[in-house]
Amino acid sequence: MSQMLKAAAFLDRDGVINEEVHYLHEPAKTVLIPGVAEALNKIHEHGYLAVIVTNQSGIARGMYGEPEMHSVHAKIKELLAADGADFDAVYFCPHPPTAECSCRKPKPGMLLQAAKDLGIDPARSFMVGDRAGDMEAGQQAGCKATYLVRTGYGQQTLEKGTPQGAVVVDDLLAAVNDFFKD
Ligand SMILES: [Mg+2]
Ligand SMILES: [Zn+2]
User: Fold this and answer.
1) Domain ranges (residues) in the chain
2) Distance CA 53, CA 20 (A)
3) How close is the Cα of 117 to the center of ligand 2, in Å?
4) How far apart are CA 142 and CA 76, in angstroms?
5) What's the rounded mean pLDDT across residues 61-70?
6) Nearest ligand to the C-alpha atom of residue 101
7) Ligand 1 centroid vs 5 CA: distance in angstroms?
8) Which ligand ends up closest to the CA of 151?
9) Burial category of 22 from C-beta neighbours within 10 Å (exposed 0-12, middle 13-18, buried 19 and up)
10) Residues 27, 133, 51, 37: is their CA dihedral positive or negative?
11) CATH number given to 8-179
């Protein structure tokens, strides 16, 4: 049975954790969005896992390799550590949009794989992103809530209309505060 399952915050990376940089792959250009460390600490205080789920088609496009991507993740960890914060796992899709893989958001593959690997109940979990595809992935995975942030591409996303089922918040910290407000 499922009484031992955990819950998670599924987090898009670019525009949610770090400032949006087109096809970010350089640690030196990796800048945290304000409040992210506090948000991650709150996620952990509530016993939730923080799982990054990120589309990285720049790998398929030959713009950078997996080692460069991992160096960005190491830089994010280093920046977070300065504020005593961390994330638990990263799932990435290296495929191009044309591959029709099961992992690239808006498909829920990365969330479902993390749920399987880490023992997460999506129905108690939430997704935070800056694009409509993030909302769709969270909903297809069966998340309890999906938050659209105004950071990153969030404002541009909203100009095309609020994605269905999305709760609009300023940033990751606001999403976390809303989810745990009760
Ligand atoms: Mg994003
Ligand atoms: Zn993929």
Assistant:
1) 8-179
2) 15
3) 17
4) 28
5) 96
6) 2
7) 27
8) 1
9) exposed
10) positive
11) 3.40.50.1000
Return d(Cα 180, Cα 1) in angstroms, integer. 25
Question: Ligand 2 centroid vs 95 CA: distance in angstroms?
Answer: 5
Q: Band the pLDDT of 4: cuts 50, 70, 90.
A: confident
Measured CA to CA, the distance from residue 93 to residue 96 in angstroms comes to: 9
> Is 14 marked active-site?
yes
Q: What percent of the chain has pLDDT over 90?
A: 97
How much distance in Å is there from the Cα of 105 to the middle of ligand 2? 8
Q: Of the ligands numbered here, which is closest to the C-alpha atom of 104?
A: 2
Q: What pLDDT is attached to residue 3?
A: 61
Q: Is 178 a catalytic residue?
A: no
Distance CA 162, CA 155 (A): 10
Separation of alpha carbons 48 and 50, rounded Å: 7
**pLDDT tens string 140-166:** 999 999 999 999 999 999 999 999 999
**Whole-model pTM?**
0.97
